[in-house]
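Supplementary Data S3. Sequence and structure tokens for construct A.
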Amino acid sequence: MRKEELRTPCYIVQKEKLEANLRVLKQLREETGCRILLAQKAFSMYSLYPLIGEYLDGTTASGLYEARLGAEEMGKENHIFSPAYREEEFDEILSLCGHIVLNSPAQIRKYKERVRRAGKSPGIRVNPQCSTQEGHAIYDPCAPGSRLGTVKEQLTEELMDGIEGIHFHTLCEQNSDDLEVTLRAVEEQFGAWLPKMKWINFGGGHHITRSDYDIKRLKRCICHMQETYGLEVYLEPGEAVALNAGTLLTEVLETMENGIRIAILDTSAACHMPDVLEMPYRPPLKDAGLPDEKPYTFRLAGPTCLAGDVIGDYSFDHPIAPGEWLEFQDMAIYTMVKNNTFNGMKLPDIVLEDQGDYQIIRSFGYDEFKRRL
């Protein structure tokens, strides 16, 4: 179908841009021998898993349902990490995943031997207590009091006996200089254990497909761990897979004024792009500028009852009006996986764009709202 036939709101994933990202990741795999997994927590559009599986080594999960999705829809390597596993789900997780990352000494003592008896590879998530983030405390696993990972003082010979891999995940939308700093801290704190391991997982948060990302430095980090310790190196990017590969199409429902111009959209920050409020951040908007950069500035907001359901202030070359379509960019990641039906809001359609042809992959209606309640 044609773009003008779509109904709003809808997420549009652009196949060409997705494949461009995947080619970058595949080239990194081929040049270093590392293994790259899709972090499903950022992008779980499983209709594209066969395509993604042509470029990557598999998937990584944060719980049972993601583990099932990765196993059923991609069927390649399947890794999992959770801060704590539910006992009644663990046998099924063992049947689905080859690498099981355990978070704490208690979880290791509870599950390590079961993982080994099942012929799977147990790992430990460590906390190098090395924070490289600025301004995003909610996404900082190295913040004081973090529940994510075990600190070096808690490791013992008994605890690490039989553990085959070390996992750390400390980055969020960052470049490889921060990885290099973190990796240095991992070596300083956990270097005694590294020669005894089979693999190391650098986690996610690597913006590998961003235009200014320093891939050469990343390659040096990978090769260093391979050559120094003989480790198989895993990366599990989520955002980098679908970065800038999707948009969110929305319609202006109404405009008003209250000291500033306001436009009410059929898209909600709270429901359809929650990271706008959680991080927070201002998503890019096609053909729009910063406030007052262009002649007409509007505050774009959602239709829910939440007073703070505000996407941001944008300027335009003309006064936008009801019925006009706007297109938010970089909307493939952390949108479909986090959206909700607060206020009975309709979930956006999921659309695939391939060389100018638009295919609706999934549509949602009243039933999705009602079944959750």
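Construct B, processed identically:
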Amino acid sequence: MRRIGVLLALLSCCAFLCPGLWAGEKGKRRIQSREQSVFAEVKGLVSRDKMQEVGLYEAVDGGETLISKTRVGANGWYGFAVEVATPGFYTVGGEKTSERIRVYLEAGMNAEVNILEDSLVITSRNSPENLLLAEWEGLFEPVRRRVDHMDYIFFTYKELFPYYMEFLPQTEAFKSKIHCRNRSFAELLKQTVDYDVEYFALRALTAIKIDRVVRKGCRPTLDEYPVYYKTLVTKDKLKNADLLKQPYGTDYLEKYTTLALQLENRKSTIADQLRWVPCDLLKAEIVLRHAGRAKTYEKYDEIVTYFARYLTTESHHRRMDELSAKLYVGNKGDKAANFTYPDRNGKMVSLSDFKGKIVVVDVWATWCGPCRKEIPALIKLEKEMHGKDVVFIGVSVDEKKDHQKWLEVLDKEGLEGVQLFADGWSQIVKDYKIKGIPRFMVFDREGNVIMIDAPRPSEPALKALLERELDK
């Protein structure tokens, strides 16, 4: 059960202001101290039975990413020091989302959250930003509980919708009182208020509720939605990626687009969902969410290939690589897991560029003795296959620092043709579950697997395999 407790200091100024603590010379020293540090601290007291660890999560890409865990000390205290490059939200607490609370952190800031038996307490020993955030958390918590806590399982939409509509004016009243010298935080908090209210309104539509009279599940029909829901979605609403600063950002996106299509009486396909999201970064999150649900590599590849124009950032590609490595098996006849690396001139070359040819891939490194031992046999095999529909691709997993050494070995050993530099133990290794090198792999003209642990060039079996494929 998640309850928010807030212990506020009695300030001489308005509870919604954050000036007094920062005034005068003392304030200047505190600001200077904050600027000089790149770390923020989170600490607190735990009195919850059986809670031995506390996690700290960063709100990134519209979700919560665990960045650190710490054990609760014998005295009940826990603490973190985290490097904060960009100010933003973090969550602290237990393993379940319902056991965590947001805090705002920037370099040099300290936050204190106590984890008590039935509540999470943002104490009075916090920054003005977190005291403001705590005010909102305390105000909104009764609404949150009525939406998705089992305490209110009989609080159906018949009671919930009127309750929600009566609460909405309080959000505007709260936002009107937000004044803070940290203007970027003030704007973030105003956005947060809007997103929180909308997100839990969306959750209310599918919340687990039981009609106490008939003792059956109870959800509203479209005709029973308040007018509010029709005003909540508009096609020009999500123009930027601010939503991804929230720990529930991607879940909001899914529920938002689902409602939009429900109002249109359309099925929830990826393409239809994307029509309701103007921002490409948000579109990418929808694509990745669907790709993450793919049961096979082929389905995953179909999704990310079709919507590749939205998957542009380092974060997108990292998560794509993780999904690819998880799904890819590489059985005979399976579609090859594609890879793209630079050649010696910096040109990006992909495995898929050679469709129509039989492809032999050699995964190797300059420091690998057995790899170097295979080079004469490899060069001999390449010459024997010259003029036939066979392409040989060398993929070096040397580290970036050894790039020049790789170029020198290519010249010294006479390695020509397609030579690519993978810059370390990278995606090709993860996809094909390579534990040791050299690894030779063979793919057919359609880009499907023939063998991902093929014989080495020094073994006659590799040449025989290629000749059989050429005769097909």
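Residues 394 and 419 are 5 Å apart (CA to CA). The chain has three domains: 4-204, 233-327, 340-470.
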